[in-house]
Amino acid sequence: MAPKIFYGAVIHSKSLEELEILEDATLVVDANGDIVEFKKSRDDAITMASIPKDAEVYRLPRGEFLIPGFVDTHNHAPQWPMRGLGQGLHILDWLEQVTFPVEARFADASYARATYENTVSDFLRHGITTASYYGSRHAEATRILAEICVEKGQRAFVGKCNMDRHAPEYICERSADDSLRETEECISHIRQLPGCSQSKLALVKPVLTPRFAICCTPDLLQGLGNMMKADDDLAMQTHFNEAEQEIQATRELFPDLAARSEADLYESFGLLGPRSILAHCTIMTDYDKERVCALECGVAHCPIANMTVGGGFMVAPVRDFLRRGIKVGLGTDSGGGWASQMLAVMRQAMIASNAREVVSQGQDKSLSLEEVFYLATMGGAKVMGLNDRIGSFDIGKQFDALQITTTQRLDSAMTPREHGDSARIVFEKFIMSGDDRNISDVYVGGRRVAGSRV
Ligand code: GUN
Ligand code: FE
Asked: Are residues 403 and 366 in the same domain?
C-alpha cells in the first residue's frame, strides 16, 4: 500500500467533553497504515524529509473533513436481515419468534457467505470501521464472517455465539462440550485464516460470545471463563441486565448466584474483567455499577434497541457510568436496533439521555454532541481495548478514518452547509442530519475500503 498524506480539516476527540477541530492539519500515513505525522496547523510545517517519496497526496476541499471511523461495540451480524423486526415483543419472545428462526438460516454456509458479504459492506458504508460481532451459534458461518471482514478490510471482533440450552432444538447446541470445542476451533481458525498476511490477520480477533446466562449451562459458562483466564488476548461479550423479563428469568435459573446481581453470576464463572464487553446495562443497581466499575468491564450502550425492541422503553444510566469512570461505547445492536448507522445511534443516545435527565430530575445531565461523538469513537475503542490502535488521530495509531463531504450535490439528508458556517456547525449538521452519502471515503488501516465517492 502506498503511504498517504492528507492536507485539510480534521476533527477528533481530545477528551470526553472536548473536540479538537483543526482547519489546516496534515496527516501522514505510512505503508502499514500507521499515522506517522500529525501536524495541527499550516505553520506547524511538515519537513519534506518526513514525507515518503511515493506518498499519494490528498487535499481536502472546503466543506470536507476527516473524522475517526466509528466503533460499533455491539452488533449481531446474523440479525442484519431482520433489523427492526418484532417491535413490541419482549426480549425472550422476540428471540423465540423473530431472532432464532433467522439465525438458524446460518447453518447454511452459502446463505451465510452471501448475507455476510452484504452485512459487512453495509456497516462499512455507514462508517463502522470496527465492529464487535456476535455470530450465530454456527462455527462455519462464523469463520466465514471473519474471512469476509478480512477480505473487505473491516477491523472486527468475531465470536461464535454459545447457546446450549433454552433455545429451540433447531438452533440449540447439543452440549457444553460441543460448544466449547467448536469455540476453540473457531478461535484457532480466525487467528490464522488461510492465505492471509500478518497485517490483514491483525484486523480480526476472536471473542468469546456466550449469548447470555439464560441460554448457557453452568458448565458452558465455566468452560468459557477458563478459556478467558488462560488467554490474555481473548475478550468476552455478552448481554447484561438488558430487560426486566431477562433479569427475572436469570434469577430463576440461578437463584443463588444471581440473587444480588448478574455481575456476581458472570464473575463467579470468571467472565468479568477489563476484556469484558457488557451489552445494554439498562437496569443497574448501585451494586451492579460498583462491580462493573471495579472489574473494569466496558459497557456497550445500545440506545436504539433499548427503546424499541426487547422490552419497552429503557434508558441506560450512561451519565452515571461516565461519572464513575466506567468505559462506555455505542452499539447498533443490529438487529435489536433497526439501524446500521452509527449516526442514528449517536442521535438516539442523545434522545435517551434527555429522557434520563428528565426522569432523574436533572441529576443525570444529558449527553452533548461532543460526548456522543467520543462514545462512538474513542469510547468504543476503550471498551474493545483498542485505544492504543484506533479512536483518534494520534501518532502511532492506525489510520481508521472517514472523509466527510458536505457538498449540496450529494442529495443527502443533511441540513445544508451555508456560507459562514463554522467547522463546528458543519460537523454538527453532519452528525445530526447527515447520512452515508456524506461519507465519501472509509479507511481502515490506511486502506480505502468503502465510501460514496464514485
Ligand atoms: N439477549 C440474548 N440474545 C439477544 C439478542 O440477540 N439481542 C438482544 N438485544 N438481546 C439478547
Ligand atoms: Fe444484542
From this structure: no
What is the Å distance from ligand 1's center to 76 Cα?
9
Number of domains in the chain: 2
Whether 30 and 109 share a structural domain: no
**How far is residue 209's CA from residue 137's CA, in Å, rounded to a whole number?**
9
For 283-302, write each residue's pLDDT tens digit: 999 999 999 999 999 999 99
ipTM: 0.99
Same domain, 350 and 401: no
- Three-class DSSP category at 177: helix
Query: What is the tens place of the pLDDT at every residue in 356-414?
Result: 999 999 999 999 999 999 999 999 999 999 999 999 999 999 999 999 999 877 889 99
Cross-strand pairs, 7: 26, 59
Report CA 262 to chain centroid distance, whole Å. 22
The angle, 0 to 180 degrees and rounded to 10, between the axes of the packed helices 109-125 and 139-152 is 40
Ligand 1 near 336 CB (within 6 A):
yes
CA distance 158 to 160: 7
Give the Å distance between the CA of 336 and the centre of ligand 1.
7
Report phi then psi at 33, rounded to 5: 85, 10
Residues 140 and 94 in one domain: yes
Could you tell me if 183 and 235 lie in one domain?
yes
Task: Tell me if 103 CB under 6 Å of ligand 1.
Answer: no
pTM across the whole model: 0.98
By the CB criterion, residues less than 5 angstroms from ion ligand 2 are 333
Cis ω on the peptide bond leading into residue 335 (within 30° of 0)? yes
Domain residues for 138? 70-383
Q: Round the CA-based radius of gyration of the chain to a whole number and report it.
A: 21
